[in-house]
Design goal:
about 150 residues, mainly alpha, 2 domains, three-stranded antiparallel beta sheet, two-stranded antiparallel ribbon, about 10% strand, binds zinc ion
């Protein structure tokens, strides 16, 4: 920034003011004192915003489970606050991975471990995921072949 450049200084100050206004929102879940954080976390809207990123992260190094998303104490407001922080830190990397690889793993359908008919051509295991009329390896997400 050049000294005396008022326009840049005003823009920088405006950006600082916007950042200050956003911070209290980040504490929203913690401050809400939700009496039933677990019930809130399982509502359809919360489930919908969990399932998208969780599906995109499936079988990548960014995969996560319910407890990773929420933390261990379902009785505190921190339960929902952890969810917001976790998603803010993970979702960008998940989106980058999907965009870079150009691959989105199929959803988990009906599954069977140690299936007697199908074997994975990649990992040689028999962990079948039946989804959309196909037999897909549960671990590698590739079509399986019959033994
Ligand atoms: Zn496999």
């Amino acid at each position: 920034m050049l000294r005396g450049d008022g326009r840049l200084r005003r823009r920088w100050r405006a950006r600082r003011r916007r950042r200050r206004r956003v911070r209290p929102r980040r504490r929203l879940y913690r401050a809400a004192d939700e009496p039933e954080p677990l019930s809130r976390a399982t509502e359809p809207l919360f489930e919908a915003v969990r399932l998208g990123p969780q599906q995109a992260a499936r079988n990548t190094t960014h995969g996560f489970d319910w407890d990773d998303l929420h933390g261990s104490d379902p009785g505190s407001g921190e339960y929902l606050a952890h969810r917001a922080r976790f998603k803010r830190s993970r979702v960008p990397r998940i989106a980058e991975t999907v965009a870079d690889t150009g691959f989105l793993a199929p959803p988990r359908g009906t599954t069977e471990h140690n299936n007697a008919v199908y074997v994975c051509p990649e990992c040689e295991r028999s962990e079948v995921n039946w989804i959309a009329g196909m037999e897909v390896c549960l671990d590698c997400d590739v079509p399986m072949r019959e033994r």
